[in-house]
Amino acid sequence: MSGVLVTGGTGRTGRTVVQVLRAAGVRARAASRNPAAADPDAIRFDWNDPATHGPALDGTDRVFLLPPVESVDPLPLVEPFLRRAQRAGVQRLVMLGSAIVLPNAPSAVEMAARVRAQPGGVVLRASGFMQNFLRPHPLAEHIHRHGEIRTAAGDGRLGWVDARDIAASAAALLADPGVDARSDYLITGPHGMSYPQAARIITAQTGRRVRVERIAEEEQAAAYRASGMPTEFAAALAAVERGIKEGREDRVSTAVLELTGRPPRAFAEFVSDHAYEWTR
């Protein structure tokens, strides 16, 4: 019996990939470190435990690949899995990558190249997640507690995208392993948006006043560390804001429309859908 293995199957994107595929009648196996006991097609999967990889792949011919999060060097953990997936005859492998390359993280670029070289390999290079504005992300926690966005990105813009649109794009590629696809897609929202613009939209849509506090890159790294992020990852994530400020990440694409047949959600729609997050 064929089907789709969804790594990170209980996360913000993977969970929606599972839901969309199952709604379309496609068998989707939700893989995570803590699989839900109530889900008969959930299975344990841990990047740090290769013994879980074979059983997760068994009986599947497609994979949604979510690399280890909060790592600047994910390839050593992912590479053995890629080899195993190829031996298992996986026909379509869709990896959720990032449009933003973390500083001092060369293996992420190499990992994407390895995925594209796989049979049926596709990389979705997603821009910033709109869900970062929802708790428990540190950005959202600070908005909730203090009514402000602290950023080192200035007025730089990013093509923020809703995780639901990322999931729908991935599911469109995974539902039918025979569908024609490129090996690489830039996944963004409909337009670039700065943090000051985001603050104005949240304020206008919800009535909750959100202001922007401009801080230095070093302050941002310290804030990420305080939230529990590993030191190296916190520094890399803060450095990304320098690239945003300098305009290097202001890119948009039509890939969501191309893959799903509908345009990506705008941030105002996202805020309307989650207004309770800022008003409660």
Features:
7-stranded parallel beta sheet; NAD(P)-bd_dom_sf; 280 residues; 41% helix; Ergot_Alk_Oxidoreductase; NAD(P)H-binding protein; NAD(P)-bd_dom; 15% strand; two-stranded parallel ribbon
Structure description:
- By secondary structure, the chain is α/β, with parallel strands linked by helices.
- It has twelve helices and nine strands.
- The chain has helices at residues 14-23, 53-57, 75-87, 106-117, 138-146, 163-174, 195-206, 217-226, 231-245, 255-260, 267-273, 276-279, and strands at 4-7, 28-32, 42-44, 62-65, 92-98, 121-126, 148-151, 184-187, 211-214.
- The protein has a seven-stranded parallel β-sheet, sandwiched between helices. Strands 7-9 form a two-stranded parallel ribbon.
- β5, α4 (106-117) and β6 (121-126) form a beta-alpha-beta unit.
- The longest helix has 15 residues, at 231-245.
- It is globular, with a radius of gyration of 19 Å.
- It starts with a strand and ends with a helix.
- 41% of the residues are buried.
- InterPro entries: Ergot_Alk_Oxidoreductase (IPR051604), NAD(P)-bd_dom (IPR016040), NAD(P)-bd_dom_sf (IPR036291).
- This is NAD(P)H-binding protein.
- It comes from Streptomyces atrovirens.
Summarize the structure.
This is NAD(P)H-binding protein. The chain has 280 residues and is an alpha/beta fold. 41% of the residues lie in helices and 15% in strands.
